[in-house]
Write a structure and sequence with these properties.
The protein has 271 residues and is of the alpha/beta class. It is 22% helix and 30% strand. The relative contact order is 0.11.
C-alpha cells in the first residue's frame, strides 16, 4: 500500500549524498536552496520516494525520514552519540519492544529518540538530565519524531539515585558513570544490562573497576570505527575521511549477589 505524504508529515528532501533537508510538509510553504526553490505543494499528496524538480529544474527525491535522519537532523545544543555507537548500544544492551530503559544524560535527545523507537509500543524510557534547557530541546526533537509518549523526561541528577526499579537497561552518557553504578545495580532486574558511553579511556577504567567491585559480570568494552567505501567501477576505494574514534562503550550484566549451593544429588546406583 502506497505511503502518501500528508500535510503535517515530516519529509526528507534528498539532493545528493551530502545534502539532505528535513522539512515539515505544509501547503504554501517552500524551501530555498542553492539549487532553486522546492515547493511543498508539489509533493503533498504524492507517494514517498517521488522525484520532483526545483524552480531551477534540479531533481530532489522526497523520502520518509528514518530514525537515523531524525538523529542527524536533531536540534543541537550538545554533541550527540553517533549512530554507529547507538547501534551497538541497542544490540549489546538487548533493547527491544517492551523494554524499560533508564537513560542519563538526555542532552538534546538523539540517543533518547532511538531508544524510544525501539521500546515502543509498550516500553518506556526514563531519561535523566540536570539541565532544563537541554530537556526542552530534547522534548522538541522527540515530538518531531513522534516518540514523546514513550519517554518520561526527568530533571534530576542520576548520581543522587534512580527512582525506577526492575528496569531492563541503564544507559549512561555522562562524565562520571562510575558514580551511578550502585544506583544502577539497585534499579536493574536480575540479569539486566548496564551500558556506558565514554570519550576517554580513563573514564572506562574507573567504570570497569567499579562494575567489577560491585558484582557486575560479563563486562566488556568496545570501540566502533566506520569507514565508507566510494564505489565507482575501476576506482572503488575507501573514502579519504572516516568517522574514527568517538568513544568507548562499556557493557555489563547484573549478577545477583546470592550464591546457591547445589542441591543434594543422589549417588548413582548401578542398574
Amino acid at each position: 500500500m502506497a505511503d502518501e505524504i500528508r500535510e503535517g508529515d515530516y519529509a526528507l528532501l534528498y539532493l545528493d549524498d551530502r545534502r539532505t533537508y528535513l522539512v515539515r510538509a505544509e501547503r504554501g510553504k517552500v524551501l530555498h536552496t542553492h539549487k532553486g526553490i522546492v515547493r511543498f505543494d508539489d509533493f503533498i499528496g504524492r507517494e514517498f520516494g517521488v522525484r520532483i524538480k526545483s524552480s531551477m529544474g534540479v531533481e530532489f527525491i522526497v523520502f520518509k525520514p528514518s530514525i537515523r535522519d531524525y538523529v542527524y537532523k536533531s536540534l543541537r545544543g550538545t554533541q550527540i552519540i553517533y549512530p554507529k555507537d547507538i547501534a551497538l548500544i541497542i544490540l549489546y544492551g538487548n533493547i527491544q519492544p517492551g523494554s524499560r530503559v533508564v537513560e542519563a544524560g538526555t542532552g538534546v535527545g538523539a540517543l533518547t529518540t532511538v531508544l524510544a523507537s525501539y521500546v515502543r509500543p509498550n516500553g518506556k524510557v526514563y531519561s535523566y538530565e540536570i539541565r532544563k534547557e537541554f530537556l526542552e530541546i530534547a522534548r522538541k526533537n522527540l515530538e518531531r519524531a513522534g516518540l514523546l509518549e514513550y519517554v518520561e523526561l526527568k530533571v534530576k541528577d542520576i548520581t543522587q539515585g534512580i527512582d525506577e526499579r526492575d528496569v531492563d537497561v541503564v544507559v549512561l552518557d555522562m562524565a562520571t558513570p562510575w558514580l551511578v553504578i550502585p544506583h544502577a545495580y539497585e534499579a536493574l532486574k536480575g540479569g539486566g544490562s548496564f551500558v556506558s558511553f565514554s570519550p576517554t579511556i580513563d573514564q572506562v577504567i574507573k567504570t570497569v573497576e567499579e562494575l567489577r567491585a560491585y558484582g557486575f559480570a560479563y563486562v566488556e568494552t568496545v570501540e566502533c570505527l566506520v569507514r565508507k567505501i566510494r564505489v565507482e567501477r575501476g576506482r572503488t576505494r575507501p573514502e579519504t575521511l572516516m568517522t574514527g574514534h568517538t568513544g568507548y562503550i562499556t557493557f555489563a550484566r547484573k549478577a545477583l549477589k546470592e550464591v546457591f549451593e547445589p542441591s543434594n544429588i543422589p549417588e548413582r546406583s548401578d542398574v
